[in-house]
Design a protein that fits this description.
Number of strands: 16
Structural class: alpha+beta
Order of helices and strands: HEEHEEEHEHEHEEHEEEEEEEHH
Shape: globular
CATH architecture of one domain: Alpha-Beta Barrel
Largest sheet: 11 strands, mixed
Distance between the termini: 46 Å
């Protein structure tokens, strides 16, 4: 409990939706090439305590058979030396307030195991921020580790794991975007057993990047939001072709989206998670942008898959940094925590050095 009291308080800025006369389009290339990725995989580690079933060679073989270009083994609290993409999953709290730390300079062990306040969650992000160039909030919906209100105020994170087989966090994602924090989508199956077809490829990420690109290019693409998340609606890995983004273009105040194949339905989502446009049994959508639109993201549905794009945003893809410490409330908190602590120390010292009755006195 002492550690909870020592965590600082923060001066959180109010939400500020995206603004500007121009639009940022992460998919503005004339032609889009895609590579499949998954960055949330658990291998056998820590003596089996974390429930990973296979070792890295088996994991890599399973994903290579499915045509994945990028995989990252995200063991808890360790960077697996055999992971093609170096990362780890941070966190050991009971409410699963976890983060994915890509290309980390160190593994951070500090965490708060009991339920966490907004300030505690921010303190953890502040500590992780200095150790990793790409910081992702893992599975917000899982045990409600991060609420939509949290994501609308926290700063210092780069992306959100929106799709995860332990719970999809689309509403929470929209809260972050509506607050003006640019958070691209990542989607992962969070697999613990690659031999279980219900786990493998239940969710995945497509990156607008050639599969032979460098890790530096991958990092830039993830940060820029050139990602699309997929959800598998079947009970086994997808082996047939599925729709992908072919083109996303802005012509003046008109947005045009083209898919590689027809889908059952397309939805365009904007501020507050509101549906801005929809179309059915088609491979394209055209939408006249309104002055009230602050961000726009696409969803598409077939019988086999759901597709979710990272957003286009008005102005620049800005992210909130770690907010400044609110020193007044923080110092008051430390003072209130310190006074009982000093009293306990005084009582302890008094008992330790109090004169004791001699044996002869006790006999009398």
């Amino acid at each position: 409990m002492l550690a909870y009291g020592l965590a600082p308080r923060y001066d959180f800025a109010p939400p500020r939706p995206f603004q500007g006369k121009t639009w940022y389009n992460p998919f503005q290339a004339e032609t889009l090439s895609w590579s499949r990725a998954n960055f949330h995989i658990h291998s056998y580690s820590w003596g089996g305590l974390t429930n990973g079933r296979q070792f890295p060679p088996q994991i890599q073989a399973a994903y290579q058979r499915l045509g994945y270009a990028w995989i990252g083994i995200s063991d808890y609290q360790r960077v697996n030396p055999q992971s093609p993409i170096p990362l780890y999953e941070h966190g050991w709290s009971v409410k699963k307030v976890h983060q994915l730390c890509f290309w980390p300079r160190e593994v951070v062990w500090i965490d708060f195991p009991l339920p966490q306040t907004l300030a505690i969650k921010q303190a953890i992000l502040a500590r992780l921020r200095s150790t990793t160039p790409f910081l992702v909030l893992a599975h917000p919906r899982f045990l409600h580790s991060y609420s939509g209100a949290d994501l609308a105020r926290l700063g210092g994170y780069d992306a959100i794991e929106v799709l995860n087989r332990y719970g999809d966090s689309v509403a929470e994602w929209d809260s972050a975007l509506s607050s003006g924090h640019y958070a691209p989508i990542l989607a992962h199956d969070n697999v613990h057993d690659v031999e279980n077809p219900h786990e493998l490829m239940s969710r995945w990420t497509e990156v607008a990047l050639p599969p032979d690109a460098s890790q530096e290019a991958l990092q830039a693409a993830l940060a820029a939001g050139r990602t699309v998340g997929y959800k598998n609606r079947t009970l086994a890995p997808i082996t047939q072709a599925y729709p992908r983004l072919a083109r996303v273009a802005l012509a003046g105040e008109t947005l045009r989206v083209q898919l590689t194949a027809p889908v059952d339905s397309i939805r365009l989502i904007g501020q507050g998670g509101a549906v801005r446009a929809s179309a059915y049994q088609t491979d394209h959508l055209e939408y006249p942008i309104h002055p009230s639109d602050t961000y726009l993201r696409l969803e598409a549905y077939t019988a086999e898959v759901e597709l979710y794009t990272s957003p286009l945003v008005r102005g620049q893809p800005t992210r909130r940094g770690v907010p400044p410490i609110a020193w007044g409330p923080t110092l008051l908190q430390w003072l209130l925590l310190g006074l009982p602590g000093l009293w306990l120390i005084k009582v302890g010292l008094k008992k330790l050095f109090a004169p004791r009755a001699r044996p002869t006195d006790a006999i009398q």
